[in-house]
Automatic annotation (TrEMBL):
<keyword id="KW-0812">Transmembrane</keyword>
<dbReference type="Pfam" id="PF01957">
    <property type="entry name" value="NfeD"/>
</dbReference>
<dbReference type="InterPro" id="IPR012340">
    <property type="entry name" value="NA-bd_OB-fold"/>
</dbReference>
<keyword id="KW-1133">Transmembrane helix</keyword>
<dbReference type="GO" id="GO:0005886">
    <property type="term" value="C:plasma membrane"/>
</dbReference>
<protein>
    <recommendedName>
        <fullName>NfeD-like C-terminal domain-containing protein</fullName>
    </recommendedName>
</protein>
<feature type="transmembrane region" description="Helical">
    <location>
        <begin position="6"/>
        <end position="23"/>
    </location>
</feature>
<dbReference type="InterPro" id="IPR002810">
    <property type="entry name" value="NfeD-like_C"/>
</dbReference>
<feature type="transmembrane region" description="Helical">
    <location>
        <begin position="30"/>
        <end position="48"/>
    </location>
</feature>
<keyword id="KW-0472">Membrane</keyword>
<feature type="transmembrane region" description="Helical">
    <location>
        <begin position="54"/>
        <end position="72"/>
    </location>
</feature>
<feature type="domain" description="NfeD-like C-terminal">
    <location>
        <begin position="96"/>
        <end position="148"/>
    </location>
</feature>
<dbReference type="InterPro" id="IPR052165">
    <property type="entry name" value="Membrane_assoc_protease"/>
</dbReference>
Amino acid sequence: MLAGSLFTSFGFWLLLGLALLISEFFVPGLIALFFGVGALIVGLLTWLGFIDGLVVQLLIFSGISLVALLGLRRHCMDWFSSGSKQDDAADLDDSGLLGARVRVASDFANGVGAVQLNGAKWDAESDEPLKIGDAAWVVDHRGIVLTVSGQKPANKGQKDKGA
């Protein structure tokens, strides 16, 4: 009886909702947020006397949480990222890699090899048959893998960094 009244009381749902909202700060991902909102709504509806009974509370909690999660998560992710997708192309240039001059550190076999940039060895890809000691320029990168070309790019943001 006591356990049943504890789980059907509005206090439980409000505390659960607050705990879930707080947990979103420690494990971000915009999932706990929606379950926390669902728990807070159930707590409020229980306190106002609109719903009673554990089964109804669980159904409403599940419904609100899942609808919010599936319907609003993408919108909220876009809102929280606030334009980072537009900044991705700018970040590529801001990394200082595009147009950098590199020295080929190993022969390219099947389009894959290594280059030397600022004293560090980088994995690289190229459609050209580059050989050890050749000069090349960074034309793109995917994470830490550089795409290089034996021809100097015509970009205005070229850099002749130490190869």
